[in-house]
Amino acid sequence: MGPREVPLTTELVRCPDPQPFAGSDHQHGACAHKRLLIRRPPTGGRSGAVSRVDPVTAENSSSRLAHGVSPVWLVLVGIVSVQFGAGVAKTLFDDVAPTTIVWLRLVTSALVLMLALRPRLRGRSRSDWLVVIGFGLSLALMNWSIYQSFARIPIGLAVTIEFIGPLTLAVAGSRRLLDLAWVGLAGLGVALLGLDGGGMTLAGVAFALLAGVAWAGYILLSARTGRTWAGLDGLAVASAIATALLAPAALVTGGGDLLTPHVLLLGALVGVLSSVVPYSCELVALRRLAPSVFGILMSLEPAAAALAGLVVVGEFLGPAQYVAIACVVVASIGATRSRRPPASALAAA
């Protein structure tokens, strides 16, 4: 956590679950926010000075000034970076196979994470390795399938369909009518995509749905990985495993392209934009940002993907498709805001 002043009086409040779409590195226990007015002990200046805490970022004014950049902006930068990285990747698909590009992306992120974190590998149990291997498999499948979808349908539509996976997981098992309504709204959005039909292919939709299933698996396995691997160590090892799993297919489809300097450089650029920058921004932001707010911001990804497709690739969508994206974004925000707090939070309150 970032540096905070310790108040004399604090109050635990009920808050929603961390964003269910995020991995273990996003789901830290930042659930106990300080109340809005915190009286600090006198330190030689005025007695009883008041420090106001932002209800969005859960940080006081002096801390915010010390950090400089708002965590909300950091998350937004990460979102834009991911989707514009996808746009850059798609511009290469005419010359390089999507499998090769996604492998170069994974290579870049794995190298950066492994070198920066140097995770402990010795002394791990068999169950530790089974969990992180499953995590790596879901990571490989998620990235490979969404890039296959990008190659067949517009980026904004692919990400919108992919969001159905984590959104369904977020409300799975709930019997609340409101949660079912959010799923229904998202389903309506996907149905609207089919009504317009522009740029849609059955294979592209199927790969996007597969990516959504893999994303849901990634979320579940990331939580388990986070319980046995400290910090981002599990993500680093999983990235290396995902790279190894896709290596044979990438080498076969890439062939001589992997020896071309501009392909390697652009592949590394995609890795930086789609993995390194978002990981870094979100890691810093999540130290100071309320988890519920993070979840709402992440719900903007389909809209960011549509923008990236328009700006980078020149993908123009139809009116019904923009309405469909809006439906999924609103459903995601609604599902995030309406989730019940965990029992531990209620007990603490």
From TrEMBL:
Classification via InterPro entries: Diverse_Substrate_Transporter (IPR051258), EamA_dom (IPR000620), EmrE-like (IPR037185)
Chief place where the protein resides: membrane
One Gene Ontology cellular component annotation held by this UniProt entry: plasma membrane
SUPFAM superfamilies reported in the protein's UniProt record: Multidrug resistance efflux transporter EmrE
Domain (EamA): residue spans on this chain: 203-334
Membrane topology classification: Multi-pass membrane protein
Alphabetic keyword roster: Cell membrane, Membrane, Transmembrane, Transmembrane helix
Listed transmembrane segments: 72-93, 99-117, 129-147, 153-172, 177-195, 201-221, 228-251, 263-281, 293-313, 319-336
Localization of this protein: Cell membrane
Protein family according to the UniProt entry: Belongs to the EamA transporter family.
Name assigned to this protein: EamA family transporter
Record lineage: Bacteria, Bacillati, Actinomycetota, Actinomycetes, Propionibacteriales
